[in-house]
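Known limitations

Structure tokens in this collection are predictions and should be treated as such. Users comparing against experimental data should check residue numbering before alignment. To illustrate the layout, the record for N-acetylmuramoyl-L-alanine amidase is reproduced below. The input appears on top and the generated tokens appear beneath it.
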Amino acid sequence: MNRRQVLRWGTLLGGSLVLASCGLNKVTVFEAGPPANGLGALAVSSPAMSTTTDWKAQAPREAITLLPARPTRVIVHHTASANVSDFSQAQAYTLARSIQQSHFDRGWSDSGQHFTISRGGYVMEGRHRSLDAARGGTQHVRGAHCEGFNDVSVGIENEGTYMSAAPPTGQYDALVRLCAWLCQQYGIPATELYGHRDFVNTSCPGDLLYARLPQLRRDVAARLGVSVRVWPTTRSGQSGERVRSVQFLLRARGQNVAVDGAYGSGTGTAVSAFQTSAGLTPDTVVGSATWERLILTVRPGDSGDAVRGVQSQLATRGYAVTVDGAFGPATESAVKSFQTAQALTADGVVGPNTWLALVE
Ligand SMILES: [Zn+2]
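Generated tokens:
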């Protein structure tokens, strides 16, 4: 849909926004579990969107780079600016111009992000040509929003600071609509929506907006009419049983990594190597796409590190199993008990749904 909004300039609010932009930096992708019906059942249309022309952007200071490949994930940011109560379109346009100017001031060629959503829920093109690229669905505008991942990710800035406040409903709904459309246009699985902090040392997109990303993935999947498994994002600096599961599975996949429950550089190297071998973008972040490739279905009679991973999870949860890598009767009994407790089919086979319940 070519829905270009015509801007009627009314009285513009003066004053410039101070944008402590979320910093620049990085992210990942997946094939959401198999869609329930084989493919996205629902075609979604582009959200109403204002172009760079609409909000009177300045011309970019260098040529925009169009890459001949689809991006593989969407990265969500917050602008770290004030949680304004002005939800008007005029405010949205003022915001867009302010961001562009602040990015010029950093020496960048244009707005770093591809799209911007105001607190009032107005969706705007950020960097020039981003909208046409997404409409075409085969090219990606190189952005400047996540260092190391600008060639493979679409960046969305959400106006506000979401460390202790949640985004307004209208803004969140616009984010769902925009993400669903981008996923459709680029063939990005609905699970491959990440936060800036997943790839860089930053608080962006704020604790509350970040905490809502699993729901965002589910909401986007629902809008697209697909069924997905949303896995917990596991990455550098984390520790605990979930990290041990990743490490056991990496070993089962032939990677040489110690099982210590701490996600350090060795684990990151192994994750990247595995991702490369699986045809995924090597970003060290174990999101849904990576989990889906990493897990191995194990059943009675099996042995090895994947079985150890299951046993270690069960033991941590208080089940009477020995972490010996041999899927015997005691392990089978514990698996069935766990499956029953989780309202899963108690068949003693640890497939994707049981793995997800174990690592959640
Ligand atoms: Zn950010």
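For this record: Residues 169-186 form the longest helix (18 residues). The two ends are 39 Å apart (CA to CA). Please report discrepancies through the issue tracker.
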